[in-house]
Design a protein that fits this description.
With about 140 residues, the protein is mainly alpha-helical. It folds into two domains: about 10-85, no CATH class; about 90-135. Helix content is about 65%, strand content about 0%. The chain has six helices and no strands. It has helices at about 20-40, 50-60, 65-70, 75-85, 90-110, 115-135. Helix 1 (about 20-40) packs antiparallel against helix 2 and helix 2 (about 50-60) packs antiparallel against helix 3 (about 65-70). It is a multi-pass membrane protein.
């Protein structure tokens, strides 16, 4: 490999549990969250980022191999590393999440019957809180 083509691998900071049962639980939960994150890529109403971050957290406590794979992943790696190092989220991700939450909330207001409008307002309140939280985080 030439000098300018050397691969950079981020070394994870893991805190593995000593209990084999707890490690297997975290490995299983990590895969569950990872699969839900992949499904979230395909379904517009399901988020991707929180599930990928949960998978990274579970694998950091259970499997150095899976955690290392995720933080060096072609698509998810930078996002996970930015979160682990600085709790930072890219600006495009903040904007996309806010637009998707707004669109989902607007659809609820449009589609729900009048007697269920309280649910649309509850979702709007939660989504507003999430958007405020996201934009208070540093940009990656």
């Amino acid at each position: 490999m030439t000098d300018n083509k050397k691969a950079f691998y981020y070394r994870p900071k893991t805190d593995q549990s000593n209990s084999p049962m707890l490690r297997w639980t975290f490995v299983t939960l990590g895969w569950l969250f990872f699969i839900l994150g992949i499904i979230g890529i395909l379904l517009p109403v399901m988020p991707t980022a929180p599930f990928i971050l949960l998978a990274a957290g579970c694998w950091a406590r259970s499997s150095r191999r899976f955690h290392f794979w995720l933080i060096n992943h072609k698509y998810f790696g930078k996002f996970v590393r930015d979160w682990e190092e600085n709790h930072a989220v890219p600006l495009y991700a903040k904007c996309l999440a806010t637009v998707m939450m707004a669109a989902s909330t607007i659809m609820l207001f449009y589609r729900l019957p009048a007697d269920m409008m309280w649910m649309a307002w509850a979702v709007a309140t939660v989504c507003s809180g999430v958007a405020i939280y996201l934009f208070r985080l540093p940009n990656a």
